[in-house]
Amino acid sequence: MTLSRIYLEKKGKLKSVERALESVLTVANPLLSEASLDLLKAGGKRIRPLLTLLCAEYGDPKRKAVTDSAVMLELIHMASLVHDDVVDDSDLRRGKPTVKAQWNNRVAMFTGDFIFAKAIELISDVDNLDVHRSISRVIRDLSLGEIDQIKELYHWDQNLRTYLRRIKRKTALLMALSCQLGALSSGCSSEIGLKLYYFGYYLGMSYQITDDILDFIGSKKQLGKPAGGDLRNGNITLPTYFAINRYGLRNSIRKVLENKNPSHEQWDSVIRSIRASGAIRDSEQLSNAYLQKGIKLLEQLPQGKVTHALRVIADYIGTRDY
Amino acid sequence: MSLFKELDLVCHQLCLELKHEYVQTVLPKPDIDRDKMTIYYMLFRMNEPQQAAGSYTKSVMVAEIGLNTHETMTCEKRTDKELLKQRQLTVLSGDFYSALYYYTLARQSNIELVKWVAQAIQNFNEYKCALFFPHVHFGWQELINEIKKIESALVGKIAHQLGFTHVVPYISDFFLLKRLIAERDLSNEEKHTGYFSKLRLDDDDQLVEKLDWEIKSQTAQLSQALQQSENQSELFLKLRDYINLQLPQMA
Fold it and tell me: Which residue in B67, B84, B129, B195 has the most chain A C-beta atoms within 10 A of its own C-beta, making it the best mutation to test that interface?
């Protein structure tokens, strides 16, 4: 089984999710509708809904709550993207103008808040307090993770734990929730739900580390922006952390981060040094270690097609190059 | 405990809830609209014991503050790192507050209230988009009506859902009045929130004059409506007394 095969098999369900997303985002106000639907049409991997739909196969995947959960998770992700583009001052996302670029920051606020509220309204029909406690904690932590990222900008001396906590909040928890909700909304036991939660968590940690590696080694075409964008914005990710603490690049990185106006050449030189050091390889090793933990958990789940599909997704995350 | 003492306690707990060590080093403390807090508390207190009413008030106030935080978003290009950080945290702290209302209400097992707030936030954002990007030109009265919808989007929805639809018009008029007064004061300082930017007025003086007139007219109408109402419900009487107490101090 390949990843494309999994997407193909889930095509019908993913289409239902897509239709539901389109339906909830079509509202009377034309501006809000257009801004939200443009974002939806820009596409994306839909990895979170895919995980929810797959994990629901351990229970009864036909339950309405399954699609609602998948839609809710994608809405939360979309809302965070709209606001992230204001935070990062990004004009393009997936090659298309961002909401803030097409209209302005205020419209981006309205749109993100609107989509987020839609997500909450949708999930409020679920009659399970544990589910609500879990979702609301993840959403709160997600926003705390984003605040941490700003707080820790340009802190070249931050420790590994700080970085890991940040990516846990920023990415891993939502993936963990995607898997857990798939299980719970389809009527699985909380034991299976918990195992899937941790599988999603490890997957998410690996996913974000890979993203942070790709930011250094990806081409401008693949990334849609110059390589090393995170570092240029003061964001210390894992490759930079290792370059500072293991490969003697502390002074050169510190110098460029503390410089008020570093030149393109200075940035390019530091980014080349990080690439050439063993920092990328070390980061890949840590990403892989998380992935292996996730894969190990799969051994504790019923062995069959679904578990195999989750293994394929884990393998894809370990080898993805975009 | 008197109503005002109970409210002091809610306000204190709300401040603790909103506290974020790092955010408060960069952004000013969020404003707490004491009038809104009082009215929410009155609404919840009709059917709930003191503690639950206080907790629900706190949660919906957090949601209000999340929206108000995003209200302060600016649009011009910024290159200064500190100003950029302020903008970034304006987005993120607003998101944090929006997440917090769901988080706290889920812990109080009140998912019904979560739903009402979520629906009201959607309406609020739809009204905002309609106001800032109108498809037709708004005249003065239409603009006033739109602002009224925005200002009481959340509190009006909660009052309605709790079964107190009869007080919604008074609440809406009261918060409209508050906004008009705030807009007039800002205009006097030549500051703008954008609410009246779509109006084709020649200068700020003209806007201040129009707002002055509107404030007087709205105050008179609200006082009269409160006085003439035959409603004798406990909530209405409490609300009437509260608004009557605030009105002379406001305008």
Answer: B129
Q: Does A308 touch chain B (CB under 8 A)?
A: no
Q: Which residues of A touch B121 (CB under 8 A)?
A: 113-114, 116-117
> φ, ψ for residue A97 (rounded to 5)?
-60, 140
**CA-CA distance, A306 to B164, in Å (whole number)?**
50
Please determine, for residue B135, whether its predicted confidence score (pLDDT) is greater than 90. Answer: no
Q: What is the mean pLDDT of chain B?
A: 93
Chain B partners within 8 Å of A31 (Cβ): 129, 133
Indicate whether A197 pLDDT > 80: yes
Query: Domain with A35 in it: what CATH number?
Result: 1.10.600.10
Q: Which two tokens stand for residue B83?
A: 């100003």
A89 neighbourhood in chain B, CB within 8 Å:
78, 84
Closest CA to A159 of A79, A242, A276, A94: A242
* Three-class DSSP category at A96: strand
Q: What is the pLDDT of residue B137?
A: 82
Q: Which two tokens stand for residue B153?
A: 């989007």
Q: What are the domain boundaries of chain B?
A: 1-109, 137-251
Nearest-CB residue to A105 (from B75, B103, B107): B75
pLDDT band per the 50, 70, 90 thresholds, residue A120: very high
Q: Is the pLDDT of residue A257 over 80?
A: yes
Backbone angles phi, psi at B47, to 5 degrees: -120, 0
Q: What's the number of domains chain A is made of?
A: 1
Q: Which range marks the domain in which residue A112 is found?
A: 3-319
